[in-house]
Amino acid sequence: MKKIAIFSALATLLAACVPAEDLHVTTTGPEPVVLTCSGDVVLQRESNPNLALTLNWTDNNNIGTTGVAAAPKNATVNTLQFSATEDFAKTYDHAVAKGATSAQFTVESLNTLSGRLGLKGGVKSSLYIRLASALSATGTPVYSNTVTVGVTPYEVDLSVAHILNSSHEDTGAVLRTLSEGVYGGFMGVSSWYNWFLLEGSGTEWGNLGQDGFPFYLSSASDKWNFWFPGQAGCYYTVVDTKKAEWSALYIPSLSVSGDISGDMVFDKASNSWILGFNATAAGSVTVRISGTGKQYNIATGTDDTKATDAPVGFGGTADAVTFGEAAADLTATVAGTGEVSLILDLGAMTLRVDAGGVAPVEVPQQLYLVGINDGWTNKDWDFDNYLTLFDEDNLAYGGACNVNSKWGYRYYTIKDTWSDFYGMESGDFTSGTLVANTETNIPAPETPGLYLMTVSLSGLSYTNTAISTVQIAGVGKDTGWELLDMTPGETAGVYSLAIPVEDKTPWGFKIYINGWDYFFGGSDGILRYNADGCPLDDSYIGSTCLFTVDICKGTYSIEKQ
User: For residue range 428-443, what is the model confidence (pLDDT) as tens digits?
Assistant: First the structure.
C-alpha cells in the first residue's frame, strides 16, 4: 500500500534536537475493517422507535507510523455507506463517531434511508452496506467487505405530512409537500390549538422544548406541541424542517369582488370560505377573492401586537386554485338560479357554486347559565350569566359565576331562546353528565357563592369548583411568577391589586384560582379560562399599575397609578 507522509506540529517542536531524516513521518493509513450485521428486517411504522439493524466492525483506529511521532488517537474517519446497488453508484453516507466500532438504526431511521435510496415500500429489497475509512474527510478511503441485508420498508407517502392532535393522534388533516422537507396548507383551528406534524418518513415534529422559542421546530423526544396564537379561525401554515421553523398566516376575513361581491364566512368544519348569493341566471361568475392576513413566525412569536400585515389573494382556475399575495380572476360554473353558495374549499383548493344557501356551522362562543342566580335577584330566569368557549375542538366552556339558585339551572346555547338546552343526566352540583332537552335541572349547591365552572358539550359533562382564592402572577420577568392575593371588590367576581411593574413581562400575566390549580389568561381586555397570559406592554415598566379583573364577566383592565 502507498505510504502517506504526515507533517505535524510535533515535528516542528522536535526540529532542534532530532535529526532531519527522522522528522519525515509516514503511515500506511487505516486498515480495511471486517463488517458484520444483523439479519433481514421487515419494517413497520408502529415500531418506529424500536431497534431494526445493528452493524459491527473491527477496530482500525490505531494507526502505525514510522519516525518518532505517533499518529493521533482515533485519527481514522469512518463512514458507513448504504446503497441500493452492489456497485455503490448512489450512496447514503452515515458518519461514524471517532473510536466507534458499532452502529445501530431504529425502524424509523432505516426506513428513511431506504426511502432516500429508492427502495419500494412493501417489497423486500437488497440493501448493500460497507464502511469507508480514511485519514481525513477528503482523504482517499479504503473499504470494508460489503454486507447485504434484505429490507422490506413500509410504504411512505412523501406528498403529505399528517396533522396530529396534542395527544399524538391522527386528525385526518394534512399539510402538502411544497418542497423536500417543507409542508404547507390551510388549517382551521381553535384558539391556542396544540398539535404535532408527522412526516411520511415517520419523523414527528413539534416545538422546541424551551420557554421563549415559539415557532422553532424540534423532532427530539423532549419536544413540546406546536401552538397557534389566540386568534381562532383560518391559518395558512408552513412547516420548514430544513430551517427548523414554522409560520402561521392568520386570515381573519376574505372579500369577494367581480360579478358578485360580499364578505365570505369561514367554516372550520369543512375548512372552507363561503358566500351565499342569489343567482339570477345559469352560466358562470367571475370573481376575485382577497384579504389581509396577520403573519406569525419566529420573529413575532404569538404576540398579536408584533404580527405583521400580509396581503393574500387567490388565483389559478376553479379546479386548481392557487394562493399568494395577489388575487386574480376565478370563474366558477353556476348550474341554476335561486339561492346558491360560492365555496372556496381550502382542502381540495377548488372554487365551486353549490345549490342552496349553505351556511357555515358557527360554534356558539358563550353558553348561558339559566336559573343560576334567581336566588340573588328574585327574578324569573334570565340569560345574564354565561361561560365562554375556550376549547372549540371539545366544545368546552369555562368561567366563574356567583351562584345562588332556587330550583337548579340549565345550559342554553342561544341567548333568549328557550329551546336547545342541556340538563343533568346524572351527578350532583359538583360534577355530572348532561343530556339534551331534559326536564331534570342541575341541582343548586348547598352553599351559595363564587364557583369556577366548566362544561364540555362534546363530552356531555360538567364540573363546578368553589373559589377560595383569586391571585395574579407573571408581572415582571424574574420575580413575577409568585402568587399575589387580589382584593375582592363590592361586585362579586371583581378583584384588583396595585403592583409596581419593574421589568418586562414576556409571557404575560395570569389570574390563578385556588393556587396554581386553575387560571385565566387572554388579551385585549378579555379574560378567557385556560388561555395564555395577558400581554403587558413595555410602556407600563417603571409604573405602579392597578390590575382589575372580573372573573364572572371575563374582563380585565390595567391603569397606571
Answer: 999 999 999 998 999 9
